[in-house]
Write a structure and sequence with these properties.
This protein is mainly alpha-helical. The protein has helices at 23-29, 34-52, 56-69, 74-86, 90-104, 110-119, 123-133, 141-157, 161-167, 180-195, 199-212, 220-227, 237-256, 260-274, 277-285, 294-304.
């Protein structure tokens, strides 16, 4: 998707203005003058709303415009990177998210960067990122779990299936928390077991994923039903409503066609039922010009040209068949990504 100097229209129906931004975004835009900060902020509001509606192309268009106006602002590069990720523009996403990390000093999106590298056909780079940040306690545990899942998938891409599954055998599998990362980790582990031909264990971990997935985000329940041979068909609520109306009309038609003798017979039965009213009652109780950002993008490109690391030596400890390993310990680790023996 190419860039245009023309400002895209802002979506209607949204509340715009600097006051509508969250505290973190406001702080990130304070290096800009007031007019520019508000204009750029409006684009970020639009991008976020469009992402929520799965309009990733529209979100990326808004974010790219904001980037042209404030390319030295970390939050702007971050939003552009996330939108590019959603649009599957992997190299753009890597460049933008790396720039956001350099500008902001955080690693909140290292898992997305790793996933982009994997999509670009560089699984070894995804694993390198896991080696660097997988045990870094300054990185949010949820981000490290996502990075672990991506690195596991990268190993499977490299033909190390059982090692990929064993990599997910960490303390977080038995966390008592019902947070999204717990369900995601269990679901990924179950999928690994399935790929390794260990269906019974996979069913067990899918059930545990369902227990932690309060919002149904992972789709673990549907996956479990699929293994049982049950297909859950989606239905259109409007169609269901129409069916109800048809049933209602049919009932009316049947009323018009009733036999008077049948009505009389029914009325007679109703009189007899009235005598049991007492029994029934008892039952009822019971936005400025863009700054030159070539230096940032060049850095991102240079990073892409680094020689690929040899990861074979790093995975030797995980190549033992998981079939010979005990189930993850019941006791939860303080670090959810800590490996289990």
């Amino acid at each position: 998707m190419g860039e245009s100097d023309e400002a895209p229209d802002l979506p209607e129906g949204l509340e715009y203005g600097f006051d509508q931004l969250d505290k973190e975004t406001k702080a990130g835009l304070r290096s800009l003058n007031k007019q520019l900060a508000e204009a750029v902020g409006n684009r970020l509001i639009a991008a976020a709303a469009l992402l929520a509606e799965d309009d990733v192309e529209g979100a990326l268009e808004q974010a790219r415009y904001a980037r042209r106006k404030a390319s030295r602002v970390a939050i702007v590069r971050e939003v552009t990177g996330v939108a590019a990720y959603g649009a599957e523009e992997w190299q753009l996403a890597v460049n933008e998210l790396r720039a956001a990390q350099r500008l902001g000093g955080t690693h909140d999106h290292v898992a997305l960067i790793a996933d982009c590298e994997r999509a670009l056909g560089h699984p070894e780079r995804a694993i390198d990122l896991y080696r660097e940040y997988g045990s870094d306690e300054s990185v949010d545990p949820e981000v490290r779990v996502e990075l672990l899942i991506v690195a596991s998938g990268a190993r499977r891409d490299m033909g190390m299936g059982e090692a990929a599954t064993a990599m997910l055998k960490v303390g977080g599998l038995n966390s008592p928390k019902t947070e999204p990362w717990v369900a995601r980790l269990r679901y990924a582990y179950a999928e690994g077991l399935l790929a390794d031909g260990r269906e019974d264990e996979a069913r067990e971990w899918l059930s545990k994923a369902v227990a932690a997935d309060e919002t149904g985000e992972t789709g673990a329940a549907e996956r479990l039903l699929e293994l049982e041979g049950i297909v859950v068909e989606e239905y259109d609520e409007d169609d269901e409503f129409d069916d109800d109306e048809d049933d209602f009309e049919d009932d009316e038609d049947s009323d018009d066609d009733r036999d008077p003798q049948t009505d009389a017979h029914t009325e007679g039965e109703a009189d007899a039922i009235d005598e049991d009213d007492d029994f029934d009652e008892d039952d009822e109780d019971d936005d400025f010009e863009g700054e030159d950002d070539e230096d940032l993008d060049d850095e991102g490109e240079e990073a892409d040209e680094e020689p690929e690391a040899d990861v074979k030596g790093d995975v030797s400890a995980a190549t033992a068949s998981p079939k010979d390993e005990a189930a993850p310990d019941a006791e939860e680790s303080h670090d959810p990504t800590e490996r289990r023996p």
